[in-house]
């Protein structure tokens, strides 16, 4: 069967995966209202195309944190890729390198950071951190990723406690997962994920200065949904924000990412870059996010679908499909470059 869109990959991946793994990837918090609204919210936005423009050449390239990427379509941090493909994050990293886009590696990667770097030595890599209560452990990990050539530190904010993910609780999945990178300072063995879920519950805004003191990497805050937190991010001199609700896996019934984007973009007033993850499934979705102020989007579940279907080649196909769709969307709205995408291209539907 030909897989021609991201939902085709979703359907095919479901056939390849065990129920517990499928539930782990697809599941949301509580009633999954936010998970579903992340997708539905994009469909409430309509496009306003401009015609009679020369679109014989359309350029999808852009930059994030000063680094060029082939398209504003990158890979969000998700954990445990070895659940869906033997080479796990190594395959994901190779696909990202081939596509010329950024891959945010998760703290909960199932491959070592060293193996991921060896697999894709020329790839653009950022590292996502869940703040651990032991500061020294955070410092060791940050220094390690910096020495390995990661270009930014992405700190996840929306997980002081784990969301109520009913499917994972029923399946007792977390008891069977282990980490290879978040290791005890006293022991070199991998730590069961179930033991690591009590991430720091005391981490607060004033702690950001400590992270800034121990790394030269730009700091990106992931999980901001309000203007108040966006303003605080600017005040604390971070370099970027990812507007995200954790794929609807943390606090249910919050705003869809695309609905929160406008508020956050307005609050930062162009002082720092703003990105988005959650609900992107088509090239039109990418265009809408950029029109509302996102510098680029990050893909979560669709990358795992591609990985589950065909490994590295599946991830490449997912990225290629979405990039081609985005190219078409640009041409059909009269945009010859990413710089020409603006707020006038979209309006919110009353439906």
UniProtKB/TrEMBL annotation:
<feature type="binding site">
    <location>
        <begin position="300"/>
        <end position="301"/>
    </location>
    <ligand>
        <name>FMN</name>
    </ligand>
</feature>
<protein>
    <recommendedName>
        <fullName>(S)-2-hydroxy-acid oxidase</fullName>
        <ecNumber>1.1.3.15</ecNumber>
    </recommendedName>
</protein>
<feature type="binding site">
    <location>
        <position position="244"/>
    </location>
    <ligand>
        <name>FMN</name>
    </ligand>
</feature>
<feature type="binding site">
    <location>
        <position position="246"/>
    </location>
    <ligand>
        <name>glyoxylate</name>
    </ligand>
</feature>
<dbReference type="InterPro" id="IPR013785">
    <property type="entry name" value="Aldolase_TIM"/>
</dbReference>
<keyword id="KW-0288">FMN</keyword>
<feature type="binding site">
    <location>
        <position position="156"/>
    </location>
    <ligand>
        <name>FMN</name>
    </ligand>
</feature>
<feature type="binding site">
    <location>
        <position position="165"/>
    </location>
    <ligand>
        <name>glyoxylate</name>
    </ligand>
</feature>
<dbReference type="Pfam" id="PF01070">
    <property type="entry name" value="FMN_dh"/>
</dbReference>
<dbReference type="GO" id="GO:0005782">
    <property type="term" value="C:peroxisomal matrix"/>
</dbReference>
<feature type="binding site">
    <location>
        <position position="130"/>
    </location>
    <ligand>
        <name>FMN</name>
    </ligand>
</feature>
<dbReference type="InterPro" id="IPR000262">
    <property type="entry name" value="FMN-dep_DH"/>
</dbReference>
<dbReference type="InterPro" id="IPR012133">
    <property type="entry name" value="Alpha-hydoxy_acid_DH_FMN"/>
</dbReference>
<keyword id="KW-0285">Flavoprotein</keyword>
<comment type="similarity">
    <text>Belongs to the FMN-dependent alpha-hydroxy acid dehydrogenase family.</text>
</comment>
<feature type="domain" description="FMN hydroxy acid dehydrogenase">
    <location>
        <begin position="1"/>
        <end position="351"/>
    </location>
</feature>
<dbReference type="GO" id="GO:0019395">
    <property type="term" value="P:fatty acid oxidation"/>
</dbReference>
<dbReference type="InterPro" id="IPR008259">
    <property type="entry name" value="FMN_hydac_DH_AS"/>
</dbReference>
<feature type="binding site">
    <location>
        <position position="128"/>
    </location>
    <ligand>
        <name>FMN</name>
    </ligand>
</feature>
<dbReference type="GO" id="GO:0010181">
    <property type="term" value="F:FMN binding"/>
</dbReference>
<feature type="active site" description="Proton acceptor">
    <location>
        <position position="246"/>
    </location>
</feature>
<feature type="binding site">
    <location>
        <begin position="77"/>
        <end position="79"/>
    </location>
    <ligand>
        <name>FMN</name>
    </ligand>
</feature>
<keyword id="KW-0576">Peroxisome</keyword>
<keyword id="KW-0560">Oxidoreductase</keyword>
<feature type="binding site">
    <location>
        <position position="106"/>
    </location>
    <ligand>
        <name>FMN</name>
    </ligand>
</feature>
<dbReference type="InterPro" id="IPR037396">
    <property type="entry name" value="FMN_HAD"/>
</dbReference>
<feature type="binding site">
    <location>
        <position position="249"/>
    </location>
    <ligand>
        <name>glyoxylate</name>
    </ligand>
</feature>
<feature type="binding site">
    <location>
        <position position="222"/>
    </location>
    <ligand>
        <name>FMN</name>
    </ligand>
</feature>
<dbReference type="GO" id="GO:0003973">
    <property type="term" value="F:(S)-2-hydroxy-acid oxidase activity"/>
</dbReference>
<feature type="binding site">
    <location>
        <begin position="277"/>
        <end position="281"/>
    </location>
    <ligand>
        <name>FMN</name>
    </ligand>
</feature>
